[in-house]
Design goal:
The protein has seven helices and no strands. By secondary structure, it is mainly α. The chain starts with a helix and ends with a helix.
Length: about 170
């Protein structure tokens, strides 16, 4: 379960949204996940995996930033869909890249470390952000994720630029 799926229902409830509307908004995210994965072969054929991942992280960062700016359900559906387009490719692309860049004979280790870090983050983030959210509200939760995703996307773009200039 991602941070969005964990915190958005709580955030939506504070906005006064019904459970049905919250479910529809989260479903927009899931729909975009599926659609983005259908286009993954086309995107990776046109651009390198690192570039696609960088774009997806940047799209996700923008969506996380936009979430708390407006409480209108239709706005939140659009932002949720946008986020799903970005985040939908991050997991499969990162798995593929970890596999492709792992040393020969050490693929299991690389994927195991990736999975361990992923599960540790899934365990710790709700605890940390739950404390932050109860003290400061939802803006820091969504915006800190925007910063983290944006930083990751920019880092991938910078690595690509450094490789091209070297």
């Amino acid at each position: 379960v991602g941070l969005y799926e964990f915190y958005f229902p709580i955030y939506g409830k504070t906005l006064g949204l019904s459970a049905s509307v919250i479910g529809i908004i989260i479903s927009c995210n899931a729909t975009a996940f599926i659609l983005s994965r259908l286009f993954m072969p086309f995107l990776t054929a046109k651009m390198k995996e690192e570039r696609v991942l960088g774009v997806c992280l940047t799209i996700s960062a923008v969506a996380f930033f936009l979430i708390p700016l407006n409480g209108d359900p239709f706005y939140l559906m659009a932002v949720s869909f946008l986020m799903g387009l970005g985040l939908g490719l991050c997991q499969p692309l990162s798995m593929t890249m970890a596999y492709n860049h792992s040393p020969i004979g050490r693929t299991g280790e690389v994927l195991g470390i990736r999975l361990t870090v992923n599960k540790a983050v899934q365990f710790l983030i709700p605890i940390v952000f739950g404390s932050v959210g109860s003290l400061l509200g939802f803006f820091p939760i969504f915006w800190s994720n925007a910063v983290l995703l944006g930083f990751s996307g920019v880092t991938l773009f910078e690595q690509k630029l450094n490789k091209q200039s070297a």
